[in-house]
Amino acid sequence: MSLSTMHEILILLEDEKSVAYFRLERWGRPARGALAKLKTLGWAEKYEKDNEIFYRITEKGEEAIDSILNALKPNKNWDKKWRLVMFEVPETDRSLRDKLRRSLAALGMGLLQASVWVTMDNIKDKIDDIAKSLNLENKIRHFEVSTNPALDRQITQKAWSNEETNLNLERFIKDAEWSMKQMGKGNGDQYKAKKLIYEYASIIKCDPKIPSEFIDNNELRRNAREIYLRLRHFAH
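Below the sequence we write its predicted structure tokens.
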């Protein structure tokens, strides 16, 4: 998964806090649309200094980056229980199903199979709020299941089987390995590393929240995490 021009510019603004407009023109025509969107979202602002135009990141922009990077926090506080959510919404009501799916994904839940979602977090109260807001109180069920080896294996295999996410992780590993071979000369290393870290966080944000102890059992995610940890050296 490649970052949009808007997010590349946002990360540059976060890295340097303020950037002259002429430097942003290297993105060509897409820079104009990206900067307009950043301003509309309130993530960046334009100002003038010594008759020159600059852009700087706002507090809201910093928060937007942090919301993505939160996916990098290790999942350590697991009480050894899986939370399963099942729902009954007909396929004909596509709009409602999509709203519900987006809400469950925003909680870090992963799709196990049709209409069955899973997470390690205790999200019952949040599920109740979602059910109420979508008028689905009688159509969403929440279960807690204690860990066991067979169930753990089934859940992690299913939750990490998303082909698009796996392809994005493979691409991230390849791109990051190539980039790190070029690093060490101080020529924009920090910005390049931050872009890759943001890309990695964006990918795993779409991954179900699974306890960190299971990552070592998945070669792809273990390798991606190890590369992320190496990138951190260049990002500071």
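The radius of gyration is 21 Å.
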